[in-house]
Amino acid sequence: MVVDMDRCTGCQACVVACQAENNIPINTETIFLQRRVIEWIWVERYWEGEYPHVRARYIPLLCQQCDNAPCEPVCPVYATYHNDQGLNVQVYNRCVGTRYCANNCPYHARFFNFWQPVWPETLRHHLNPDVTVRWRGIMEKCTFCIQRIRRVQREAARDGRTLQDGDITPACAQACPTDALVFGDILDPQSRVAQLAKNKRAYKVIEDLGTGPNVIYLKKVDPYAPAADHDHKH
Amino acid sequence: MRLGKGMRIAILLGGGFGSALLGLAVLVLVVPRVVAHYSWSVERLFRQAPAQPIAFSHKTHAGDAQIPCLFCHRGADKEEAATIPSLEQCMFCHRFIIGTTEAQQAEIRKVIEAFNNREAVQWVRVFRLPDHVRFVHEAHIRAGFTCAECHGAVETMTEMRQFHRSLKMGDCVGCHRQNNAPTDCAICHY
Ligand code: SF4
């Protein structure tokens, strides 16, 4: 996945779409105050610059589907592993909730179900039947809407065609009004993500840890950056 | 070492208290977890052939009348769920077929009434997998499996029963291995 920071406005549409698509429990105020919020994709806000030249910055973060995922080797029951499509999979019914993976994930992309999820009665029928409702005591995280990936793969197999770039769209990318999130196969040189990844603005979040993240961010370029910006000092 | 009488009583009492506590802990912490975990299997044991609001006989339809499974379960070769036919679909035939025996007529009348009153029939689900398993009918039908391979000889059943397969993971994995189907966990679990 490629995230173009120049397009992201921090509107949180991706967060809501993900919440709806993946049966993510509602984060009530109590849960928020307990710091037990579950969001598979979330928009981090940070400030850049010195007063008076302060700017709010937004960065959508999600599981980076690391090539060398630190969450995997610490799982005692192999509930999380890499599949042959390079996806960092989480098998919910295998997880026993040791939470080692969450401790080892440098992106804080894993969430523990401290409570049995409850939805208000009015939302009972809004659950997505294609996704497991995770119960209390297990770990969960973004899997790039694997239910959509599976569906498209199956439909392609049925119709006897090969997958095209753009066939699979995760809920977050679909909901993004500015098209900041792009999903595709990075190994296919013709795909949109592969093209975007060649951009000179491309970087990966805390890549120096050696996790090999598979989400590529495109740096924000600010035309109105103050002259005192340390990037332009020399 | 000789223990005083008071001490022995204390140990006995303590032991009794300890095991009572342990018993309570098992009762409060373990039993609900086990029940919750196996509710699916327990349900499966006791609901082999649940009573339906309308006594629908697969023997009459699939057996005697030889209606193909896919005529009614139209999702089976297109979708994840095999789907239960709508009342409109029942009425394709039951507009004209009103049954020969008294009992049949009574049941068919229920169908017609429900259709006329625009009511949905509250069928009781017979085949059910746990929520964390995705079974896709379409892919299995496409791979050339017949319905009977998992559902048994439905055409002989007056009451629909789930009995044919163990539906344990080993059953699925064994079949996938035999048929060179993928055994990646994420094929079924997500
Ligand atoms: S971002 Fe965290 S959860 Fe995702 S693969 Fe990397 S270490 Fe694992």
Question: What are the defining features of this structure?
Answer:
heterodimer, A: 234 residues, alpha+beta, 19% helix, 15% strand, globular, B: 190 residues, mainly alpha, 51% helix, binds iron/sulfur cluster
Question: What does this protein look like?
Answer:
The complex is a heterodimer of chains A (234) and B (190). With 234 residues, chain A is an alpha+beta fold. Chain A has helices spanning 13-21, 29-33, 100-104, 146-159, 171-175, 192-197, and strands at 2-4, 41-48, 55-62, 80-82, 88-90, 111-112, 139-140, 181-182, 202-203, 216-218. In chain A, the strands form 4 sheets. Chain A has a 4-stranded mixed β-sheet with strand order 8-1-10-9. In chain A, β2 (41-48) and β3 form a beta hairpin. The longest helix of chain A is centred in the middle third of the chain and has 14 residues, at 146-159. In chain B, 51% of the residues lie in helices and 0% in strands. Chain B has 8 helices and no strands. In chain B, α4 packs across α5. The longest helix of chain B has 42 residues, at 5-46. The radius of gyration of chain B is 26 Å and the shape is extended. Chain B starts with a helix and ends in a 12-residue tail after the last helix. The model of chain B has no long low-confidence stretch (mean pLDDT 83). The chains are: A alpha+beta (234), B mainly alpha (190). The A-B interface holds A 81, 83-84, 87, 89, 91-94, 130-133, 143, 146-147, 150, 154, 157-158 and B 80, 130-134, 136, 138-139, 142, 184-187, 189-190. The structure holds iron/sulfur cluster. The site of iron/sulfur cluster (SF4) has 14 residues of chain A, from loops.
